[in-house]
Amino acid sequence: MNTAAAFADFRTYPLISALSGVQALADRILVTWADTRISPFHHQWLRDNCPCPQCVYTVTREQVLEIVDVAEDLTTANARVDAEGCLCVDWQDGHQSRFDPGWLRAHAYDDESRAERRAGKPKSRLWKSDLPLPVFDYQALMNDNDALLQWLLAVRDIGLTQVRGVPTEPGSLKLIAQRISFIRESNFGVLFNVQSKADADSNAYTAFNLPLHSDLPTRELQPGLQFLHCLVNDADGGESIFVDGFAIAQALREEDPESFKALCEIPVEFRNKDRHSDYRCLAPIIALDAVGHVSEIRMANFLRGPFDASVDEMPRLYRAYRRFIAMTREARFRVMTRLNPGEMWCFDNRRTLHARNAFDPATGARHFQGCYVDRDELLSRILVLQR
Ligand SMILES: [Zn+2]
Q1: Ligand 1 mean position to 54 CA, how many Å?
Q2: How far is the CA of 98 from the centre of ligand 1 (A)?
Q3: Are residues 202 and 232 located together in one domain of the fold?
Q4: Is residue 51 domain-resident?
Q5: How many angstroms separate the alpha carbon of residue 86 from the centre of ligand 1?
């Protein structure tokens, strides 16, 4: 905080440009910044965001005021820049508000400020088969918050990382996942053991080849991050394969826009059932965010229910589905590596699809442990580390 003004946040907002002038209009205040940008702030917006202790509880820094408790036509009696460079507003009903210029600039909603914020948002860096694999060291991640932040940024932006030097005792995975935050438990446990089992409750627990997929597409919210830690890998085969689902979706959008549209629009059901549970989720394979960027891929052929689309849509869905799967098999998108004991994958499960080649249990043991952490935990941890 560079002024004594309060604000409803725990992070700081550097002073990008000082306030140089204030002009009151009928329904808004026009603020001029030292770098000549002009930002309008409606009276409603300013009153709504008043950070005073009556409007924001100082302990939680959460808002107490509800804007409906203030007159809709409230106007200002006076607005000025004070000696500390804050915007001070005296309201007609006697309330006073004081805004830190760093905070105000960070939340200004003139076109230029909004465009700047949009441009500054983290962007996914799409990759193909030539990805230089981002590799991190376990000890550094456990002991050094700067190293941890670099790893988490790579997970967020690239969606596939490898960690080396992880102890090979079962359960070691838990410690590094908890460096981020809470582990997401599922019906497969807090940690799941990827081993071939006679009574397998998933194709994952066999020696079969597993095609490219996301985990738990059967849930309304697929786990954000997946960790896969290799304890033992003596069996022939079993290489890990990854593709950037966002890169495939992007290529599909350019090369076959009709199929892209079908996968964004037509929901598909994924099912995971055993003797004790029955999870089902109906959702499109490609999800877009509010501005039309691909935000999620949902895919596991072995967990898919029969398509339920209209008679007219069925051929369109099959065409699109075949095209997508065919693209996941194209060499241009695939990264293939064998994971050795003490190495761990951490990837964005809602973006990076993973696969495993078949392995031969007769040639040796193979034991991986895995767990999930949600994307919210990753993003929150990054913001706190950046404070
Ligand atoms: Zn107030």
Answers
A1: 5
A2: 8
A3: yes
A4: yes
A5: 15
> Residue 55, CB half-sphere, CA atoms under 13 Å: how many?
20
Q: How far is the CA of 93 from the centre of ligand 1 (A)?
A: 11
Q: In the chain, how many domains are there?
A: 2
Give the domain extent around 251: 135-386
Instruction: Report the distance separating Cα 174 and Cα 189, nearest Å.
Output: 12
Please, what are the averages of pLDDT over each run of 10 residues along the chain (387 residues)? 70 92 96 98 98 93 94 95 96 97 97 95 95 97 97 98 97 95 92 78 78 95 97 91 98 98 97 89 96 95 95 97 97 95 97 93 90 96 94
The verdict on 353 and 310 lying in the same domain is yes
What distance in angstroms lies between residue 55's CA and the mean position of ligand 1's atoms?
A: 4
Whether 142 and 96 map to the same domain: the answer is no
Is 347 inside any structural domain?
yes
Measured in Å, residue 47 CA sits from the centre of ligand 1 at: 7
Does the global pTM surpass 0.70? yes
Same domain, 89 and 56: yes
Sheet holding 192-194, edge to edge: 135-137, 160-164, 343-348, 225-233, 366-373, 192-194
Question: Are 230 and 339 in contact, with CB atoms under 8 Å apart?
Answer: yes
